[in-house]
Amino acid sequence: MDALFDQVLVAVLMGVIGAVVFSAIGLISGSDETTTLAPLTLLVVLLGVPAAGVFTFFLAGAVAKHMTHAVPTALLGIPGDTMATPLMREANFLRNLGVPHIALRKMISGAVIAALVAVPLAVLFAVLLAPFGDAIKQAAPWVFLAAATTIAYFSAGRWASVLALLPFVLVILALQTLTGQHGVKLSVSYFLGIAIGPLIAALFAMLAPAERARMKRGERRTFALSPDVKGWGGWFPNPLKVLDRRQAGWTLATATVSSATFVFSPVAMTVILGEVVGSRIKHAYHRLTTVISVRNGVTESTYIAEALIPLIAFGLPLSPVAAGPAAPLFNAPPRFTVDSASGQVNNLHNLLSAGEFLAFGMLAVVIAILIAYPFSMNFAHRAASFVSRRISHEAVIATFVGLILVIGLWEGGLLGLLVILTVGLLGGFLYRFIGFNIGVQFMGYYTAVLSVPAIVALFG
Amino acid sequence: MANDNLYEVWGDTVDSRHLLAAIAIGAACSLGTFFLAEHLLTGWVESSQMARAYAMLLGILGSLLGGGVSACLFKPKRHVVEHVADPAWRQQVIEELRSEYGGIGQLSDLPQEVRNELRELGLDRLFDEAEPGSEAAARTSTSTSTSTATLKRGTA
């Protein structure tokens, strides 16, 4: 009994820490999920926090971030993170109509409803898929190869991305061989390099005269901060009253659909489901508010399902979220490992049962809602004003540079740093010029680690 | 205030001199705490792996500290203006909505709760006037406007 109590206590505590930290990070525009969730979750894993605590930290963090990212998106017109980009159009229309507070409230209410239904649905789908788990584990190398090709084809680069997988995988294999000769085995450095690639590419471009001339700006960017109107009494407005009945219905329906489609890119699902719903609503205002609620709901439900289903059913990172921001839940050597040859896994998949995933998942979602929802409902304007007036972009970049240096040196000394730099520069430029996006790069990494040994074994 | 050193990096504007200084501060703070913590903890924590993990945690806190120092030293290169809805902008939104798939639509198609929401926001007039077809007919008779809406969808 005491052990259970301790476990729940740790889970609650880590959930609260995750929700508070990521509520704050969500306010900073451009703070990508992968660059923030992956390293901090990894840290929690390596510090030896019990399994339940690792899980609630990650999930409460992801859910909270996808609520507070609505603040810069609605009030400043800049996307809070990658998942907020599909919401920009509707958010800007509502902002220019002079009702950004409506955009904000609809978004976070959609998020609350979707997050609450996504956890039980994801656990249900995972349990249904689990019987196929062994077959999939056997075939894992080939599944990853197929998934990498598919995700590459559906990225902006299309065939260019599919073909670019070859040299990208080759570079990763070459780097692994090089570090292996010096007895250094890296994984986090690759993740961080991929996730932070666009920043590394931008900093290199600054040093090249021609590119620098292109990046030059004549004046400061102007942001119009919208006023905030509080339209309710009390602290915790009922999300079902903020949305009308049809909006709540569409949010529930799309959350259900997106909980099942865990292998697709979360951004793509957000765009597609928003279009489907939008085409069914006749009035323009109602279309704007419904699409924005639905889309932000989908940002929550796809994230939850894409992390939970592969984790519970297979223990293998078989979705874009599982391969990216949720990667440390699967693979964080020496504590969590995925063995390439045998498909043997040792991670949260083995440490928690489906029932525990459901219970701790709901706990994490409820904690995130209790913290992020009233915060973004009541302090949105003040928070957006503080971030845009006080936190300079230089400071954000300085923090990330510090992060790269520490993680690189910690994992592999100078070699770790060089790997982050190499992978980041290559990935960043491939993304910038041919649309070989971060999700494809993560799948490329897994292809190198999991598929290539199988291919070599087949032909060797 | 003219500034010749503004560049767009990673999605926002920075001053190149400030960026350089901020990166130096970030590197110094994070590496400083990391190496110091590693040096002090190796003798103190029994497992050397845990000592390194704690040193990493402190190093990350150090990079946050570096970010904090940079935020104090360098102000954001943004113009933040309090934005009040401009009637011209509203009209522009209406024009853009009209040209997209589905058009503006009829107020009478909306459930009562959404019409109330529009009235509270003071947007009902705007959308009412933007409705396609005869304004008077749409405003006076709900039944006929529903049927014209159906017709319009048929032809769209």
Structural write-up:
The complex is a heterodimer of chains A (460) and B (156). Chain A is an all-alpha fold. Chain A has one domain. Helix content of chain A is 76%, strand content 2%. Chain A has 21 helices and three strands. Chain A has helices spanning 2-27, 33-46, 51-68, 70-75, 88-96, 100-129, 133-138, 140-153, 159-181, 188-207, 209-215, 239-242, 245-260, 266-278, 284-313, 320-323, 327-330, 348-351, 354-390, 393-434, 438-459; strands at residues 221-225, 337-338, 345-346. A two-stranded antiparallel ribbon of chain A has the order 2-3. In chain A, strand 2 (337-338) and strand 3 form a beta hairpin. The longest helix of chain A is centred in the C-terminal third of the chain and has 42 residues, at 393-434. Chain A is globular. Chain A starts with a helix and ends with a helix. Residues 134-156 of chain B have low confidence and may be disordered. The radius of gyration of chain B is 30 Å and the shape is elongated. In chain B, strand 1 (6-9) and strand 2 (12-15) form a beta hairpin. Chain B has seven helices and three strands. Chain B has helices at residues 16-42, 48-73, 87-99, 112-121, 124-130, 135-140, 142-155, and strands at residues 6-9, 12-15, 78-82. Chain B has two domains: 6-73, no CATH class; 87-155, no CATH class. By secondary structure, chain B is mainly α. Chain B has a two-stranded antiparallel ribbon. In chain B, helix 1 runs antiparallel to helix 2 (48-73). Chains A and B meet through helix 2, helix 5, helix 10, strand 1 and helix 15 of A and strand 1, strand 2, helix 1, helix 2 and strand 3 of B. Strand 1 of chain A pairs parallel with strand 3 (78-82) of chain B, so a sheet runs across the interface.
